[in-house]
Amino acid sequence: KPRISSNDDDAAKKIPIKEELRPRCRQALLQLAKHCKAVVGCRVSPIQKRLMVELVRFGGRMTAIDAAGDATLRRTRTLAIGDGANDVPMIQGAHVGIGISGQEGMQAVNNSDYAIAQFRYLQRLML
């Protein structure tokens, strides 16, 4: 069975998360993510980062009909934080993107809604 991988050694077996996660699996992952305060992606490709953000951003919306008959959306907000070019798709896919300038260049900063100079300034920005 194909598996999700981002190791260069497994390049021949690499399957994009969108193809790997069938609708039932995406729903299970979304249900798990709803119980988390944060989701951290490790060893995933830039497109997989974006797809995870978009799963939470768009898959997390549920419509409900209020007394007036208007559809209201559940208020799901996504925040992506990155410091390099590989984080740009994720930053662009989120409601709010934060780019951190540094040794990896300015691509994340140039494609973000907010920019900070170092990770340690993140707490101040969030408060």
Structure description:
By secondary structure, this protein is an alpha/beta fold. The protein has helices spanning 17-20, 23-34, 46-59, 88-93, 107-110, 122-126; strands spanning 63-65, 71-73, 79-82, 96-100, 114-116.
What's the topology here?
Elements: H1 17-20, H2 23-34, H3 46-59, E1 63-65, E2 71-73, E3 79-82, H4 88-93, E4 96-100, H5 107-110, E5 114-116, H6 122-126
Parallel strand pairs: 3-4, 4-5
Antiparallel strand pairs: 1-2
Query: What proportion of the residues is helical, as a percent range?
Result: 25-40%
The rough form would be described as globular
Give the radius of gyration: 17 Å
The DSSP helix count reads 6
Q: Which parts are unreliable, with pLDDT below 50 for 5 consecutive residues or more? A: 1-9, 62-73
| Rounded average pLDDT | 76
> How many strands, which pairing sense, and closed or not: the largest β-sheet?
3 strands, parallel
Query: What amount of the residues lies in strands?
Result: 5-15%
Structural class: alpha/beta
Order of helical and strand elements = HHHEEEHEHEH
First-residue to last-residue Cα separation: 44 Å
* Strand order across the largest sheet: 3-4-5
DSSP, total strands: 5
